Amino acid sequence: MIPGVVQRRRFSDLTEQEVVALAISSEEDDARIYRTYAEKLRAEFPASAAIFDGMAAEEDQHRARLIDLHKARFGDVIPLIRREHVSGFYARRPVWLVENLGLDRMREEAEIMERDAQRFYETAAKATSDADTRKLLGDLAAAEASHGDKADALVEEHLGEEARGEEDRAAHRQFVLTWVQPGLAGLMDGSVSTLAPIFATAFATQDPWTTFLVGLAASVGAGISMGFTEAASDDGSISGRGSPVKRGIASGVMTTIGGLGHALPYLIPHFWTATTIAFIVVFVELWAIAWIQNRYMETPFFRATFQVVLGGALVLAAGILIGSG
């Protein structure tokens, strides 16, 4: 045995006592995951937090019944066996990975958790020829299936149309604040701020490769700068704008993309072909930004067009004039 390496056992090699012990630890882990979700959501989404509280309580009840079964059949000492000890057993995603992805992602993960457990127990029950083991696994599968019904009942109890509408609006608002707003700011900055240096270089040198290198440097540099600026400007604890890392990534990546859009055409060696395509890309970029502003930021379309398209056109013209002179 290699030190530090977990030696997994096949499920078919487990005894009935170990199967019960595995079910107990699995129910305990799932209850803990649901409670973590509930705590994460409680401040902004109290109705959904109540659903996860109820699902955790349901897992506790199943765990208590399994413990009673173990005591009756095998005694008080429960073997320590967990999912990661069994080859082929369903795994749970790290809770920190899911809890940072938002309300809808948590709901989807809860559904996956219940389906995984039910499917595993059903498959395991079919694979065994021992009558008692088959019955045990079948009971576990039925218990997991009933969790879905319980979840539906909790949704009906805690998440009516009004509460769901409020939570959906809050989730949309959080998505806009964390991803759309900094991403849009980055896209605007990358698209507009790089127009002048790229097109000034293009018309001054009429060298596509040099223009591309300048555009690449300007885009990447602007992306790094915008990403760090966004992340450092607000930790989100008071403003409620969400994780600074997420906002920094959104802003930095979209800034880089915004600049690269009209830099990439200069990989074409023919100057006027590359420039014509770059003009088309700029036209599409500016109108796309205006549409995003109107769609997600609720900026009147005329105002968004005036701010973005006209402003971008002026910067583009300045770059061309400077490069031509």
Report a brief summary of the structure.
The chain is mostly helical and 325 residues long. The chain has 11 helices and 2 strands.
What global shape is seen?
elongated
Widest β-sheet, arrangement of strands: 1-2
Structural class of the secondary structure composition? mainly alpha
Share of residues in strands: under 5%
- Return the average pLDDT rounded to an integer: 80
Number of helices: 11
Counting DSSP E segments of at least 2 residues, the number of strands comes to 2
Notes on the structure:
By secondary structure, the chain is an all-alpha fold. It folds into 2 domains: 9-159, Ferritin (Up-down Bundle), CATH 1.20.1260; 173-324, no CATH class. Helices cover 77% and strands 1% of the residues. The chain has 11 helices and 2 strands; from the N terminus they run βααβααααααααα. It has helices spanning 16-41, 46-74, 95-99, 103-127, 131-158, 161-193, 195-205, 208-233, 244-260, 271-296, 301-324; strands at residues 9-10, 86-87. It has a two-stranded parallel ribbon. Helix 1 (16-41) packs antiparallel against helix 4 (103-127), helix 6 packs across helix 8 (208-233) and helix 6 runs antiparallel to helix 10. The radius of gyration is 28 Å and the shape is elongated. The relative contact order is 0.09.
What labels would you give this structure?
mainly alpha; Ferritin; 1% strand; two-stranded parallel ribbon; 2 domains; single chain; elongated; 325 residues
